User: Fold these one by one.
Assistant:
Number 1:
Amino acid sequence: MTADETITREGLAARDVADPLARFRDRFVLPAGLVYLDGNSLGAMPRAAARRVGEVAGREWAEGLIRSWNDAGWIDLAPRIGEKIGRIIGAAPASTMVADSTSVNLFKLLAAALRLRPGRRIILSEEGNFPTDLYIAQGLAALRGDGHELRSVAAADIPAALDENVAVMMLTHVNYHTGAMHDMAALTAQAHARGALALWDLAHSAGAVPLALAAAGADLAVGCGYKFLNGGPGAPAFLHVAPALQAQIRYPITGWLAHAAPFAFEPGFRPAPGIAAAAVGTPPVLSLASLECGVDIALEAPIDQVRAKSLAQTALFMRLVEERCAGHGLAIVTPRDGQRRGSQVSLRHESAWPIMQALIARGVIGDFRAPDVLRFGITPLYLRHAELWDAVEVLRDILATGAWRDPRYEARRAVT
Amino acid sequence: MTADETITREGLAARDVADPLARFRDRFVLPAGLVYLDGNSLGAMPRAAARRVGEVAGREWAEGLIRSWNDAGWIDLAPRIGEKIGRIIGAAPASTMVADSTSVNLFKLLAAALRLRPGRRIILSEEGNFPTDLYIAQGLAALRGDGHELRSVAAADIPAALDENVAVMMLTHVNYHTGAMHDMAALTAQAHARGALALWDLAHSAGAVPLALAAAGADLAVGCGYKFLNGGPGAPAFLHVAPALQAQIRYPITGWLAHAAPFAFEPGFRPAPGIAAAAVGTPPVLSLASLECGVDIALEAPIDQVRAKSLAQTALFMRLVEERCAGHGLAIVTPRDGQRRGSQVSLRHESAWPIMQALIARGVIGDFRAPDVLRFGITPLYLRHAELWDAVEVLRDILATGAWRDPRYEARRAVT
């Protein structure tokens, strides 16, 4: 649609009919009466996941018991799903593995990065990066001692901060708070030009935006299974190590599944060749099986179509907010430039918390991010354009009527 | 039964009828025609687990979506299950947490232990400890540098090896290979007398033998959810930190769920008070929910009854093997002294691999541990005495007929 075309719900419904991704919506369970705009926090459930988890429990575990590690291929799940995610993120073959949580994988790769750049003391990151990235770096720097430290600078200052003391530049590709997206190739090249490694957190990117880790020359990456990959609550995470680094890298956590011959039960650790050495312990099979269902859908969906629809939907949402919610103190935080934006829209409002609670109470599920942001994730695989119209109508009504000024929306909950 | 009483299958079946734990068998799914003696590797599936996992996927995830972190209490699962496991292992309240894998938890606690004993350089362990314990210690020592090292000695030499350079004594309570059990209280006291911390791996103990971590003065512990706790394949693991250490301990992996206010998204890490700081990242909810079902059964079963039946069944199995399989080259590895034995029987045989494959082909599921051990786990919650008779009959027949000398039993598989 052009900027001067009038938007109507009917027009949007017609776009949904013509949507080349429309067929994917039915691959997910979406409760009636909800507009789900939190797939960037927890993706919706693929129908296949419920079936698959039932089969893993009721047949593979219950009937197959220990034999299922071989007979049902449990032992292959983590590397196989890793390989599939590798294709989603544009990584070289045999460079991506599923293991642990994003936080643990960050620790593994950051610790390895410091060892690959001995003498350099700085982990360079961005102010406002997702806290676990900063915390993990702080914890590692404290563990290492020897003057290692995390240095966080504003996004614009990253290139200038890349000096000969930076061991690794650790950035989140799409910012969880603002939805702003970095230029991975450009920043990676700048890091390399100063001798630093580039570690990318793809938590808000994998499955949402086109990624080309190999082409960008990214050294290391981690990412999350339960956001745009729709892997299920707390799904295992992934990590990537560029092939050129695999022969030299030394992981800090050397668990038995990373051994060259785990079932030889040798007393001394010998790393498995390649990316297999990035594993640690026995992975949670039920959660892995669920993750694979989400990953399989992401592999099937043409990422260019996903991206085109994501850009159209984020632009639509911003325009509707501007047109229909003007004068209520909302500010759009997410970049207007599509090339600089991931797949979410963040709105700032001084009463963001109760407004989001009021939205949720009316079936529009986004989330709140401290201190003052309303966050709306756009998942093109299952989100309709007309739903964005409906969501903004609810937002408009809540703002116009002041319905959010209700004491019950003030109470904070554990997880937001 | 006394040593001179003749054992008959009928007599054993009568014992099964009188077994006070008999009612627990029906809480698990056990395939017809199998004798399952590998619950020390992967416990059988509680019937409740299949239901619960279906509910978490089909209702809490699919319908509740992100709201289930609060509304379905996902955020409380790991600490709640940890608290339950704490009761199973005889730990103080608020000292046990579910998180990550056993290997990752070992890393976290070993790294913390070295920081609690600065200046001491040795991680003391036992030759023949489970390899991941040794590998994790080796990896950590290499990461730390500064002369830190793993020193592994024979079990009998541990007390003498406890010198003023030992930071932490890391032992597995019940050995995975032999089934031999350490005296936790005595060794912990000896470690403390030399100023060392005691870290216990309870992988083959939790749910299988009475544990009293608080009474034993154990400082640190880790353990596994998928063995005698029947939590499901790759179920999340647990870790324990004695209350007296919780104010000083510094974990190396400081993820966002360990923050005092994870949803404040502060830029600097501040650890949560108490055991909550032992968390790292978002836990795998499907696998956690399954784990809780196994843990709940373990909490219900009186551990003294479990232990009495375990000792009777391990003794029975050894006696039947001696009486009925004599002359075929089997040697019993597991201690005869009940006080020194966990809940498994290990038999040595130079052809252990093909013999175990022949057993499995005939429905007797144990496992092989390199280089030459047949391992049989005893899970009193679902194992009948008469099944042990049947298992030994199959073993006797395989040995007497030489049925294991079949080429198809020679081929090794990925996981054994």
Number 2:
Amino acid sequence: MKVLIVGVGLIGGSFALVLRKHGIADEILGVEQSPCHAEQALQRGLVDRIVSLEEGMAVADLIVLAVPVDALPLLAVKVLNRVGDHQTVMDMGSIKEELCDAVSQHPRRARFVATHPMWGTEYSGPAAAREDAFAGRTAVILERERSAEDALEVVEGIYDRIGMQRIAMSSGEEHDLHAAYVSHISHITSFALALTVLEKEREEQHIFDLAGGGFESTVRLAKSSATTWTPIFLKNKYNVLDVLREHIHQLQILRKMIETDDVEGLNAAMHRANSIQRIID
Amino acid sequence: MKVLIVGVGLIGGSFALVLRKHGIADEILGVEQSPCHAEQALQRGLVDRIVSLEEGMAVADLIVLAVPVDALPLLAVKVLNRVGDHQTVMDMGSIKEELCDAVSQHPRRARFVATHPMWGTEYSGPAAAREDAFAGRTAVILERERSAEDALEVVEGIYDRIGMQRIAMSSGEEHDLHAAYVSHISHITSFALALTVLEKEREEQHIFDLAGGGFESTVRLAKSSATTWTPIFLKNKYNVLDVLREHIHQLQILRKMIETDDVEGLNAAMHRANSIQRIID
């Protein structure tokens, strides 16, 4: 299979490595705006050649859209405008409502499979691409009934072969609501925590020395890139604001309990929080 | 060396395992209030015998205080009241100001070494004790000048042998301020995040399915025990409230930026947050 990857960053680049590892792609072409990323992608052998979108679409069996979410909906429409009956288009974006809406009335909608493979790291760009990406994680497939059978077979077959569990979701709205809870709020919290510490703490050496108290795990995501996350927060604005409002509210309740030495309240809140084990264990 | 561990939970129990692994203790005795924990500690071979505090102090060379921080200051005084010239007392608590103050005027203060080995997990009790604990982490030694040379040699010698880096801090106040930033706030954030998700999210299955978006790492600490953390938050109340106030403020700034589509502000804030890499990498 000839694969064209549009956007050879952390996600697109990792997908290239994984496709190669599993012998799924004979040839991988890349479209990449950043000359620096293009160079790195070639050097690491993520793609065989960097091409224009038109050149790539002329030969690819599968076209993978892995650009930041603010560029994704319009790119999807442009690609569908040029797609042939034998070609499949998929995306890997972490926001789905706007994208699903953008392609919803397209006459070639059936060639497109909207997906979100739930994997990432706090690093970005092709230099951060990893061959062990995706395996063991969940891939969300959106609006399955809108995609052609053969296109679904291609995309779901790949996710199966690379070791992902698939789940179907019926709408982009539903996806984006869940993503706000399980991913976006964690990133905001981490960014805010990093800013808190950087703001207040002058003696950095001591922060470094004291690391080990749980700080690294909660603040790790604060290393994530603004290029990726600013568009995600803004594209998922209403869900994110809703969760953020609730999160600040929960922090204020805990603050009040600490202020008033409310031992019973704190114990009860933590016991309640402990039940998150059901979900993440 | 005969070692008495008072409080055979996650920390005391792990210390027992590590002391044994390194051949530092010939015999380890434990004082444990909870019959269930005492039973587990014996079953796992963490301690050779469960004894009363008096029995243990009659024979131990080293007395290790590993009880929750609300019980620690008074216990330290009681133990110093009975300590002999040949014995060393150390604690492993994560709050230091009140403890250091409690023992400050004690005629046998020099037999005591106040320490905080910066290690822990989100689990608690002797069942959670781990042989790979402490290694590679930092041990804070407080008020070194208040401890006798030979007592310091015992305690610092152990931390060196089990692979910890030592740093000295001159006061409990300084320690507690730093601990609020690098440990306590992370736990509060995690608890609040767990409560947020549990509060708002009804379809648990979807949270589970979507795991992988960064949620686990920020929420892991929410599995921590209230028995450990309620006293820590309350004993370090003023520092914790101060950091919490700043953290909520930072979240509110990010919220405002998202509300107003402030792309430049968000990018700038995230770039600033990214500089946390200097500290945690």
